Amino acid sequence: MALKVSGGDGEEAGGHGPILIKDRYEVHPDQPLPDFDDPPAVAVRASHRRDSNRQLYALVCDPKLPPRLDIVSTVHRIDHRALQRVVDWGVVHWPAEDRRCPVILMERPAGRRVFAALTDVNAAVTEETVMRIFLTPVVEILKDLHALGVHHRNIRPNNLFFADSDEREIYIGECFSAQPGTNQPAVFETIECALAAPAGRGEGGVENDLYAVGVTTIALLAGKTPLADLSDEEVVRRRLAMGSYAALTQNLRISLTMMEPLRGLLNDDPTERWTLEELSLWLNGRRLSPKQQVMPNKASRGFTFAGRDYFTTRELAHAMHKNWDASLAPIRDGTLDTWLRRGLSEDERVEAVNEAKAALGDGGDADRLIARVLIALDPEGPIRLRDLSATIEGLASILGLHMHDSAARNLFASALSMGLGQFWLEQQRRVDPNQLRFLTRLDKCRMVMNQPGLGFGIERAAYEINQNLPCRSELFERDYIATVEHLIPAYERLAALIAAGAEKPRRLIDRDVAAYIAVHFKRASGGELRDVEREGDEPAGRIAQIRLLANIQDYLHKKGETPHLSALAAEILEPAIERFHSRDRRRKVRDKLRKAARSGRLSDLLDVIDDQSEVQADQRSFDGAVREYALSVEETIVAKRDIKNRALLAAEIGGQLSSTFSALGATMAALITFVVWWF
Fold it and tell me: Are 132 and 123 in contact (CB under 8 A)?
């Protein structure tokens, strides 16, 4: 999505005034600042309502590529003069797109970008200046960020700003406008992440930031970004063939002083890469002999595949992923095994490939076999499965960004069901505790994915492993639900559109909303979700939908009113009035419901429609009426039966009367006889 701005380049602003954020900041859509764009985010002027001297701008982010809003408050706590300061964030209606977009407010540097574009050629910067204005402050900033559990993941020459027109200090730019690694060209990513799709690079770690620092240092020293004129695919190929340090410094003169940190930062062996502490010690004067770049073992003869010869397992794994279907034959016919044993003589890789194949046998699933073999060939590389290429953490962002793409969903589900994450972890020489924790989360995802109920499935998995993923429900296609606190206001806007004539959805709680609530609002939502699914459009299901939203409103918006949503809810609850048997009671409940809707509180509607004392009283009255009716019917049936059987009734009654009179006459005769005899 290419975001637009109002005004600028001859475009009319369309009368759009400033947009207010949190009653403190004004964003001006008609005043673009293209020099501060960070595509796909666009920059416009912003101002503080009570401090007009404060220089601010707003980054309007692409809602389809959710920004890192969850770390804004954390980074805001870091007060370092070389770090561009983030001020706040919000979600606003963006008039040029006619939809709501996330906006991040930043302090505006007084100077220009160090590199306006990565293809620019600038004057070379001296080593002393690079250490003073870039390396020293960036180490301090990264220490503060990493201590708070945050990685920058957006360090590159065109995200550096001069602090002022004197150009003696540098600001490190923002790290919020996109998910980690998605905006970084492959040249600024470690080889493991460069091999993954941009959306599948994941949060990363300290090594990602340090690698980007190394490449940016080369750019400052040389006055140009290395390999800037090449595509990402060509950059990756060169780095695989030559090693990252050699590929990036080719034809450049690097002094022995700078060679040491650059070789350490750009080392393709994760165990040999410099840490933040080592870089800090070097800046403080420790000097060592530069490490030689460790290259992967090269085969004595190349492995011919797809028309090219490959001499390392990592190169071959990359080529096999790009030619997926052609990869099966050399794996199954034994030519790969032969090359590994005879051409490469690397027992560890031979054993890993045999392990990858042994678990499946000859008749195993072809895709799973190829995926496991690629992990065995390149254990530090990403998890690959056809069009999927992601680090173990990047699986989360792949699903989050493409959760409504059926192909991406199926690939993610297949990767989990095949156990590729577990096999990848088993092949690592060293295990990162964060990767272990993430694997546990993936196992939890597998469990919730296999549950079909509302609030589970692939949607639940996406929100479980992407905590800053906005609600992706089609109900809010033009809205942006950054947190669960934004949900009720979004429903209010949706209800206002429906009141104005927009199409009314069949239900207010779909699978996306249910999964989002299940993850982000734990307060007694399970029962309501089960009722919504089980009862559907029946009264109990309608009540459950409104009760769930009422719980969120009561807990997160105690004083907020939603008149449009309440009116819509009253309309949805209208069929539930038919639960009442009494016509008078239905009329009274309907009047109460309409009155309650004017309060703007969903719980008031539930107090009317789901008043158990009223329901029970109605049921008691109904049960009494049923009993009276049943008794009346029974009496009527008896009377009708008696009328139909008059002759029998007369004979029966005559016999009874005859017997009675006979007995009475006998008694009287006996009485007279006794009296006569006595006297």
Answer: no
Q: 154 Cβ partners below 8 Å, 6+ apart?
A: 173, 174, 175, 178, 180, 183, 184
Q: Give me the pLDDT at residue 14, please.
A: 39
Round to the nearest angstrom and report the end-to-end CA distance of the chain. Answer: 129
Q: Which residue has the tokens 């006055």?
A: 223
Dist CA 636 CA 649 (whole Å): 17
Q: Which amino acid is located at 618 in the chain?
A: D
Nearby residues of 605 by Cβ (< 8 Å), 6 or more positions away? 546, 550, 566, 569, 570, 573, 593, 596, 597
Using CA atoms, how far apart are residues 289 and 329, in angstroms rounded to an integer? Answer: 46
Token pair 């016999």: residue: 655
**DSSP state string for 579-613:** G---HHHHHHHHHHHHHHHTTT-HHHHHHHHT-HH
The pLDDT, as a whole number, for residue 9 is 33
Query: What pLDDT was estimated at residue 361?
Result: 61
Kindly state the tokens that stand for 12.
């009319």
| Beta carbons of 313 and 377 less than 8 angstroms apart | yes
pTM: 0.87
Give the pair of three-digit tokens for residue 275: 């840490």
Listed as ranges, residues in the chain with pLDDT below 50 are 1, 6-15
Amino acid at 595: K
Domain 19-107: give its CATH code.
3.30.200.20
Q: Which H, E and C letters describe 211-260, residue by residue?
A: HHHHHHHHHHHHCECCCCCCCHHHHHHHHHHHCHHHHHHCCCCCCHHHHH
CA dist 114 and 57 (Å) reads 18
β-bridge partners, 20: 26
Looking from the CA of 558 toward its CB, the CA atoms found within 13 Å total 1
Measured distance CA(145)–CA(148) in Å, rounded: 5
Instruction: Return d(Cα 83, Cα 336) in angstroms, integer.
Output: 50
Inter-residue contact 349 to 377 (CB < 8 Å)? yes
Give the CA distances from residue 265 to residues 95, 184, 217, 226, 270, in Å, rounded to whole numbers and listed in that order.
44, 17, 10, 15, 10
Query: Tens of pLDDT along 94-111?
Result: 999 999 999 999 999 999
Q: Residue 653: its pLDDT value, please?
A: 62
Q: 258 is written with which tokens?
A: 């700078």
Q: Provide the token pair at 411.
A: 């690939």
Q: What angle do CA 674, 677, 679 make, to 5 degrees?
A: 110
Instruction: Report domain extents, the chain.
Output: 19-107, 127-283, 297-381, 389-466, 474-610, 612-637, 645-679
Determine contact, residues 448/460, Cβ cutoff 8 Å. Answer: yes
58 vs 41: CA distance, rounded Å: 9
Q: Cα separation of 459 and 406, whole Å?
A: 12
Joined together, the tokens standing for residue 671 give 């009485």
Q: In what order do the strands lie in the sheet with 25-32?
A: 19-21, 25-32, 42-48, 51-60, 99-107, 86-94
Q: How far apart are alpha carbons 382 and 184 in whole angstroms?
A: 17
Q: Report whether CATH 1.10.10.10 matches the domain 127-283.
A: no
Written as one letter, the residue type at 431 is: V
Q: Which two tokens stand for residue 33?
A: 């600042």
CB 542 within 8 Å of CB 605 = no
**What is the rounded distance in angstroms from the CA atom of residue 253 to the CA atom of residue 222?**
9
* Residue 372 and residue 358 in contact, taking contact as beta carbons nearer than 8 Å: no
Residue 431 is predicted with a pLDDT of 81
Dist. CA 445–CA 462, nearest whole Å: 8
Residue 621, pLDDT score:
72
Residue environment code for 26-64, b if the CB has 16+ CB neighbours within 10 A, otherwise e: bbbbbbbbeebbbebbbbbbbbeeeeeeeebbbbbbbbe
Residue type, 115: F
∠ at Cα 394 (180, 263), nearest 5°? 65
For residues 198 and 190, the answer to whether their CB atoms sit within 8 Å is no
Among 567, 521, 497, smallest CA distance to 98 is for: 497
